[in-house]
């Protein structure tokens, strides 16, 4: 008897690459204006899209990107990039990374964002970066709940409508 392994509705993640430009552009164009704004905190004209796509796939050539796929379609993206070192209580330098994630509107609330965060935090911790930061809109209740649900020791700084949340990478794993 032969059996066929059918993989449906499974989400898998892998690193993004410069060759994923067309898939990434399709994903970005399909985002609602609200999701796009909550992720990038600004708008981009259509002419800026290719540059944005390149940056999101190969962030500054020193960070990294992840794509989440379902049935061959990109349904989520996450990236990390080095941030300026932070200083600990005793003045020691603590290397930091900034992360950003976005999930296609129709797939939100299904655990994909949490999985991207897990994979990104694991990645930056492996690189020896001990602090993780996210810059989010103060009105972004979903992300704020995600952060407080994961870790109690979060430091917040506010700059107008934006909040930077910082936590130790190990506390997020
Ligand atoms: C933030 C975002 C990436 C979360 O991804 P997601 O796949 O929807 O998140 P998950 O399904 O893993 O859920 C994470 C938590 O948020 C909660 N959540 C998700 N969507 C929610 C919604 N619409 N309303 C209320 N809670 C929600 C989940 O219940 C879950 O809580 P739990 O950890 O206590 O179970 C996604 O909502 C998104 O793309 N938002 C727009 C872009 C953005 O805000 N990016 C973050 C800035 S860096």
Q: What would CATH call the homologous superfamily?
A: Gcn5-related N-acetyltransferase (GNAT)
> How many domains, in number, for the residues?
1
Please state the average pLDDT score: 91
In order across it, which strands form the biggest sheet? 1-2-3-4-5-7-6
Task: Report the span from N to C terminus.
Answer: 43 Å
C-alpha-based Rg, rounded: 17 Å
Question: Could you say which overall geometry the principal axes of the C-alpha atoms support?
Answer: globular
| Protein structure class | alpha+beta
The largest sheet is: 7 strands, mixed
Q: What would you say the CATH architecture is?
A: 3-Layer(aba) Sandwich
Strand content range: 25-35%
Q: Which small-molecule species are bound to the chains here?
A: coenzyme A
CATH class: Alpha Beta
> Can you tell me the residue ranges where pLDDT is under 50 for at least 5 consecutive residues?
none
Q: Helical residue percent?
A: 25-40%
CATH topology: Aminopeptidase
Keywords: Transferase
Protein name: GNAT family N-acetyltransferase
InterPro entries: Acyl_CoA_acyltransferase, GNAT_dom
GO molecular function, one term: acyltransferase activity, transferring groups other than amino-acyl groups
């Amino acid at each position: 008897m032969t059996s066929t392994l059918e993989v449906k509705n499974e989400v898998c993640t892998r690193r993004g690459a410069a060759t994923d430009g067309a898939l990434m552009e399709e994903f970005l164009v399909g985002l609602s204006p609200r999701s796009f704004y909550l992720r990038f905190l600004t708008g981009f004209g259509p002419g800026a899209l290719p540059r944005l796509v390149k940056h999101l796939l190969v962030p500054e050539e020193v960070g990294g990107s992840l794509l989440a796929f379902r049935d061959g379609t990109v349904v989520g993206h996450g990236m990390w990039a080095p941030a300026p070192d932070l200083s600990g209580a005793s003045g020691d330098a603590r290397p930091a990374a900034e992360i950003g994630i976005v999930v296609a509107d129709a797939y939100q609330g299904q655990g994909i964002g949490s999985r991207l965060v897990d994979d990104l935090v694991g990645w930056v911790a492996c690189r020896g970066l001990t602090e993780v930061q996210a810059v989010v809109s103060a009105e972004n209740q979903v992300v704020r709940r995600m952060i407080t649900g994961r870790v109690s020791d979060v430091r917040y700084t506010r700059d107008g409508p934006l909040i930077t949340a910082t936590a130790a990478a190990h506390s997020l794993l």
